[in-house]
Amino acid sequence: MRNVALFSLLVSALPLCAQARSPVVVELYTAQGCASCGEANAYVGKLAEKPGVLALTFSVDYWDYLGWEDTFAKPAFAERQKAYVARLDLREPYTPQVVVDGRAQVGGLQDDKIDKLVSDTASSRRRGPDMAFIGQRRVDVGSGAVPRGGAEVWLVRYDPREQDVTVRTGDNKGQTVPHRNVVVEIKRLGAWRGKPTAYRVPQPPAQGLATAVIVQGPKGGRVLAAAVKD
C-alpha cells in the first residue's frame, strides 16, 4: 500500500515536471524508390528544426518492387500508414504523404498546406495528459479525457541525424535522397484509460537514437499528447 500511495503522489505531481506543451506530431511516409519523395524529405527535415514540432520520417517498403529496397523501411511502418488510410477515409496509401497529429493528411509536396495544418493544430488542439520521463526506463502519463475506444501509448525511436542515401537502381537511380529523424523502431507500450499510468521504456536498439512517446487514439486515431526525452 505504501508503494501504491507513493506512486500516486509522484504521478499527481506530473504537471510540475512534465513538458509544458506537447509538440505537434508530423509523420512523413516516404520511400527511397519514390521519384517525388526527395523534395518532401528535405522539407520535413527543415520542419524538424522548428520548435513545437516532432517530425518523424517513416520509410515504407511497398515500392521496393520497382528495383530498390529502401534501406530504412520496415513492415510496421507501412502498417501504421494503412491505419491512417482507413481512419482518414482514403482509397489507398501513397508517398510522399504527411499526417499531422493523426487528424489530417496532405501530400508531402504541398508545403503551404502542411504549414497551415501544423499551425492550425497547434492553436486548436485541446490539452492532453501531462507526460514525464522518469530516468532512462520509465515514462509517466497523467490523467485526462479519453476518446471513444480508449487510447494507446507508443514508443518511437528515431535517428536525429541528417542522412543522405544514394540510390543505385530504380526510379531514383543516381539520386541522393536526404533523410532526417528516421524512425527505426515503433513499439506499443500499452493502453491508457485516462488515469495516471507508468510505462516501462525498453532499452534502445542502438546508440545515438532519440526517444519519443505518443499518446494516441487506437487504429490511427488523433494524437492526444507527445513527449521527447531530453
Automatic annotation (TrEMBL):
<feature type="signal peptide">
    <location>
        <begin position="1"/>
        <end position="20"/>
    </location>
</feature>
<dbReference type="InterPro" id="IPR036249">
    <property type="entry name" value="Thioredoxin-like_sf"/>
</dbReference>
<keyword id="KW-0732">Signal</keyword>
<protein>
    <submittedName>
        <fullName>DUF1223 domain-containing protein</fullName>
    </submittedName>
</protein>
<dbReference type="InterPro" id="IPR010634">
    <property type="entry name" value="DUF1223"/>
</dbReference>
<dbReference type="Pfam" id="PF06764">
    <property type="entry name" value="DUF1223"/>
</dbReference>
